[in-house]
Amino acid sequence: MTLLPPTVEQQRRIDDVLPPDPEMRKRDIAAIRDWLAKQPHLPKHMDDKRLEHFLFGCKNSIERCKLILETYFSARTALPEFFANRDPLARDIQDNCDVIEYFVLPKLTEEGHRVTILRLKETALERFSLTAITRRILMVLDIRLQEEASLTNVMIFDLKGFTAGHFAKCVPTQTIVKKAMLATQNSMPFRLHRIYYLNAPTFIGSVLNIFYPLLKEKLIEKFRIHTGGGEELYPYMDKDILPNEWGGKAGTFPELNEAWRLKIEKHRDWFLREEKLSRTNESARLPTSKSLIAKELDGVQGSFRKLNID
Q1: Per residue in 140-161, pLDDT tens?
Q2: Does residue 93 contact residue 132 with C-beta atoms inside 8 Å?
Q3: Do residues 72 and 140 both lie within one domain?
Q4: For the chain, percent of residues with pLDDT exceeding 90
Q5: How far apart are CA 90 and CA 254, in angstroms?
Q6: Which domain holds residue 188?
Q7: I need a labelling partner for 74 at 20 to 30 A (CA). Which of 151, 182, 285, 294 fits?
Q8: What is the spatial distance between Cα 209 and Cα 20, in angstroms, rounded to a whole number?
C-alpha cells in the first residue's frame, strides 16, 4: 500500500499553512541533534528524514519536537503493553487484523489531510482487544513516520456492529484506557483535524461521556457524530478517495485492510530492531530531566465507574 504524495494543489495548500524553508529546516535538525547529544538517556539512531517528519508534525517548533521525542522514546520503555513484542507475525496482531479493519487511505483530501479508517470486521466480543488494536495503531503510525511528513489527519470510526459489550471491553479499568490514551495522544507528532463517528448507536453519548475525562479538550472539539454511513462524509471530502463500499475508488474494505497487514509484515525486521533501539536508558537520565510519561503514570490510579448504557 503506497501513500500517495500531495498533488501540486494539495502541496500549495500545505505550504500556505507551513511555508517550506530548507535552510531553516537543516538548522533546526542540527539543533535537535545537538539537544539529543546532551540527553544521555535518549537514543541517537534516528535518521534525518524521520526527525524532519517529527519536526514537520510539530509545525516546525523545535521545543515541541523535543517534547514529543522525549515522550516518544519514554513511552516505549514505560508502556510495554503497547511497545513490546511488536512482531507483525505475532498471533495477537494477526488476530486483530482479522477482527478489525484498520487502514490509511492512499490519497489525501483536497485540503491535504491524511485519512485513516477503523471498523469492525468481526463482531465476536471474545476476539476484541483494546491492547492489540492500540499496538497495531501505533505500528501503523511508526510506518507513516518513516514514509511521509503529515501536517493534518482525519480519523473515521465506523461504529457499525459495535455493541455496548464492545465499548465495555474498552473500559475494564481506568489504568489500561489511560495508558492507551497516553500512548496515542502524547507520544506521536500527528495533528488531528477531525474525528468522524459513523453509524453511531443511540447510546454513543453515554459512552463518550465516560471517555471525556481522559481526553484533551481540543480533541473533543474535533468530534463529529453521525448516525448514517459513508455518505455522511461527502460534504467534507471527495468521495473518490473513500473505499468502494462508501462510493469511492480506493479499494474495498478487505483489500485496504489486507494491504496494510502486508505493509506491517514487510517492516517486521524494522520493528524487531526498533524495539531494542528506541528505548530510554532511565539509569542515565539526568536529575534535571523528568519523564513526562512516568509522571502521568504515577497519577493513574483508581478504577473506572461502572459502564451503564441504556
Answers
A1: 999 999 999 988 999 999 999 9
A2: yes
A3: no
A4: 75
A5: 20
A6: 91-267
A7: 151
A8: 40
| One domain, residues 47 and 174 | no
The pLDDT tens digits for 51-71 are 999 999 999 999 999 999 999
Contacts 24+ apart (CB under 8 A), 175-178: 175/300, 175/301, 176/81, 176/130, 176/131, 177/130, 177/211, 177/214, 177/304, 178/214, 178/296, 178/300
Report whether 48 contacts 78 (CB < 8 A).
Answer: no
Overall number of domains in the chain = 2
pTM equals 0.92
Separation CA 220–CA 19 (nearest Å): 28
How does residue 307 score in pLDDT terms, banded at 50, 70 and 90?
very low
Same domain, 43 and 96: no
Pair 133, 250 in one domain: yes
> How much is the pLDDT for 162?
93
How far is residue 107 CA from its own chain's centroid?
18
